[in-house]
Amino acid sequence: MVIRVFVASSSGSVAIKKRQQDVVRFLEANRIEFEEVDITMSEEKRQWMYKNIPEDRQPAQGNPLPPQIFSDDRYCGDYDGFFESKESNTVFSFLGLKPTLASKESEP
């Protein structure tokens, strides 16, 4: 299972850059293996990301903004969903992974 984080390396938005960094740093700090997929230079990757986000999770206007998170081809969510799962200590469930011993999710 591969966690893929779709990012835009040349985003002009400080907010998007911070959100992308937040996701990547959290995954690195928790030693969760992931692949960063840059949609800036690849129309094919950008279109794949757009097509694989469920309709009910698409924004009302425009295209979904990075970061967008997938587990293999299963859509996990965007930054807001990631942030909520981080706050409630359920990131492993959000990512479709088994919780580690240090996680609240591993408690019975």
UniProtKB/TrEMBL annotation:
Membrane-crossing segments per the record: none
Keyword presence, Cytoplasm: no
Superkingdom of origin: Eukaryota
CDD domains: GRX_SH3BGR
Any single Gene Ontology cellular-component annotation: cytoplasm
GO molecular function terms listed in the Swiss-Prot or TrEMBL record: SH3 domain binding
A Pfam family hit: SH3BGR
Keyword Cell cycle: no
Cellular localisation: Nucleus
Keywords: Nucleus, SH3-binding
PANTHER family: SH3 DOMAIN-BINDING GLUTAMIC ACID-RICH-LIKE PROTEIN (PTHR12232), SH3 DOMAIN-BINDING GLUTAMIC ACID-RICH-LIKE PROTEIN 2 (PTHR12232:SF4)
Similarity section: Belongs to the SH3BGR family.
Name of the protein in its database record: SH3 domain-binding glutamic acid-rich-like protein
Source organism of this protein record: Lonchura striata
Gene behind this protein: SH3BGRL2
